[in-house]
Design a protein that fits this description.
Layout: H1 3-9, E1 13-19, E2 25-31, E3 34-40, E4 57-63, E5 69-74, E6 77-79, H2 84-101
Helix pairs in contact: 1-2
Length: about 100
């Protein structure tokens, strides 16, 4: 990760992690003043075209001020990041935040 990504990552606050019966995880929290919801697969998927660059994030919603959604990825971009901050946050997730949240065992 770049220094900018590390600065954003330093703001990460995870408020909840919920594992499903397959070991995948829903993660909620805040990062860089935005709220996020994210689904992380426990391992790389066989169809990475439906996941972000890491192949482990299948869902990411980033909400900005007043809880307005500023980016939505649900197996593909349904709403591309609307702000530079949302784009930077999405880049942090794509750069490997899944490994930080749910390391591959």
């Amino acid at each position: 990760m770049t220094t900018d990504h590390e600065d954003i990552l330093d703001t990460l606050q995870i408020t909840s992690k919920t594992k499903d019966s397959n070991g995948n995880m829903w993660v909620n929290g805040t990062i860089a003043g935005h709220r996020f919801d994210c689904h992380v697969w426990r391992k790389d998927r066989e169809c990475p075209a439906n996941e972000m660059q890491t192949g482990r994030i299948s869902f990411l919603r980033i909400d900005g001020a007043a809880h307005a959604t500023v980016a939505l990825f649900d197996r593909h971009w349904k709403l591309f990041p609307k702000t530079k901050a949302a784009a930077d946050i999405a880049a942090v997730f794509a750069a490997g935040l899944a490994d930080h949240v749910l390391p591959i065992k």
